[in-house]
Amino acid sequence: MKKFDVVISGYTCVDLIPDFKKKQSVTSFSNLFIPGKLIEIDGISFVLGGVVPNTGLAMKKFDKKVFLNGLVGDDFIGKIAIEWLDKYYLSEGIRLTDKAGTAFSIVIAPPGIDRIFLESPGCNQIFDASFIDFDAVTESRIFHFGYPPLLKQFYQNNGGQLVDLFSEIQKLGVVTSLDFSLPDPESESGRLNWPEIMHKLLPVTDIFVPSLEEVFQIMLPGQFDEILTSEVSNGIINQMILNKIREIGKQIVGSGVKILLIKAGHYGAYLLTGDVSSINEKAGLKLKTGKWNNCELWCNAYKADPLKIKNSSGAGDTSVAAFLSAILDDENPESAVRYAALAGRNNLYCKNIYEDLSNWEEMTEEIKSEENELIWF
After folding, report:
1. Which site from 8, 63, 72, 170 is most exposed, i.e. has the minimal number of CB atoms within 10 Å?
2. Which domain holds residue 184?
3. What is d(CA 207, CA 273) in angstroms, rounded to the nearest whole number?
4. In the beta sheet, which residues pair with residue 326?
5. Within a domain: residue 58?
6. E strand or H helix at 22, and its extent?
7. Total structural domains in the chain?
8. Contact yes or no for 272/260 (Cβ under 8 A)
9. In CATH, what number is assigned to the domain containing residue 236?
10. Domain annotation covers residue 316
11. pLDDT tens across 341-377, in order?
12. What is the pLDDT of residues 201-225, one digit of tens each?
């Protein structure tokens, strides 16, 4: 038996979210943000952000034994983060530094349209393998790491430190799991050769859970740019063709990933797996190989009630939390992807993930009562 179900490491920040008036009718950012225009809001929320708090709090809500391993600055925003995590007994593995400030993001999320992030990476730029708690990792079943494009020490030198980290953790007999963030094309990480980095990283990654936009940006950056700048583009998710998604999925799994989940927002999620036998040899996981091996399916999104939506930030992280929790519970793939899709939807109804999110039993009942189509390939 392991002390922890999961160690979650990587990007940690505090999100500042202006509360737009719910009755505002917004169709695009260009219609809302006009120079000289005054926009009245209903206040601003301060919430924990990044893969470490978001996925961690959700997995704790799902009754998993969680160890968070991130970095915050010894400043006012950092104290807010530690205070919040203390409430849920999750601050033990969060390190403090006086070398740089705490990361924060301003999340511009008007109702009805997708969000934009103004991100200050802060001390995440100095977060490296020396901050990883290997004692905790050794005592965990899954090591989940998130947002390499925002973690300078891990993307420099063609991702060498991250590849070395995942290689070492696999040698410890711990399952490696990777989430991503969308590289800013104008940033240092946005100019990297991500296909080359992924060529080295995917063979030591057991579970990969990117969004659709992220997977196209890092695997086929030229096509991503072409779609994004297209005159008919309504957002990259709307432009994707299922055959292309499947093609990229097979390339990723062929590179060594055992389980791939691509989050596709309001369209749903795509699951593709290879041979998961090697995962069962690590950390006490017991996936049913007859169900999980060479599985391919699409799960439609659960319908969201627009009147209940409070916040779209962190939906992908919450979706991943449910997916990993289902894997830890030895659920079948169709159940795992349904939990992922439902948790992502339910996150929209939350201001505080831990307080407002449905627990596992409640989600199980919701899955039974809400119709949602699965497409098998």
Report:
1. 63
2. 4-10+51-67+124-376
3. 9
4. none
5. yes
6. none
7. 1
8. yes
9. 3.40.1190.20
10. yes
11. 999 999 988 877 888 899 999 999 999 999 888 999 9
12. 999 999 999 999 899 889 988 777 7
